[in-house]
Specification:
Blueprint (H helix, E strand, L loop, with lengths): L1 H11 L1 H43 L4 H62 L4 H22 L1
Helix pairs in contact: 1-2, 1-3, 2-3
């Protein structure tokens, strides 16, 4: 219901339409912006995982330990090299969460007056409810009378 009412508001309000277009562009741009680094990072993770598996297959313990140190040093350099990227990704994730929260708040703030107006304009009368209760009371009295006979 909130989404439906909000979509109606977007259709009537140029500022909301502009916002939704910008949010759509951000969503599309996010994938383009992050995808290249994620592919790069995934390849590197796979490499280091597979290298570690290969190292475990080395029978000479001295040689195995030397290679472990070599690979660990390389991994540390890689982590240092990509630390800035990872911090930027964390910022993007944090801001995406904040943006999603604020977008939800905007939808509620923009639609709350609409539902309140609907409530004021369309509240049904209590007469049918009162009439039903009156009929229930009659039925209760009749049942009570028949039970006592």
């Amino acid at each position: 219901m909130v989404e439906s009412l909000y979509d109606e508001q977007v259709g009537k309000n140029a500022d909301l339409k502009l916002l939704e277009d910008k949010l759509d562009a951000l969503r599309a741009g996010w994938n383009d912006s992050v995808q290249a680094f994620n592919r790069f990072n995934d390849k590197n993770k796979i490499y280091y995982n597979v290298a570690s598996e290969h190292i475990e297959g080395i029978k000479d313990s001295v040689l195995r330990d030397k290679i472990k140190v070599l690979v660990a040093g390389s991994l540390k350099k890689y982590q240092s090299l990509t630390a800035g990227h990872n911090e930027l990704l964390k910022t993007i994730d944090t801001q995406n969460l904040t943006l999603a929260d604020l977008h939800t708040v905007l939808k509620i703030v923009r639609t709350l007056p609409l539902i309140e107006k609907y409530q004021q304009d369309n509240l049904p009368s209590t007469k049918p409810l009162k009439a039903f209760i009156h009929n229930q009371n009659k039925a209760l009295k009749l049942v009570d009378t028949l039970v006592k006979q």
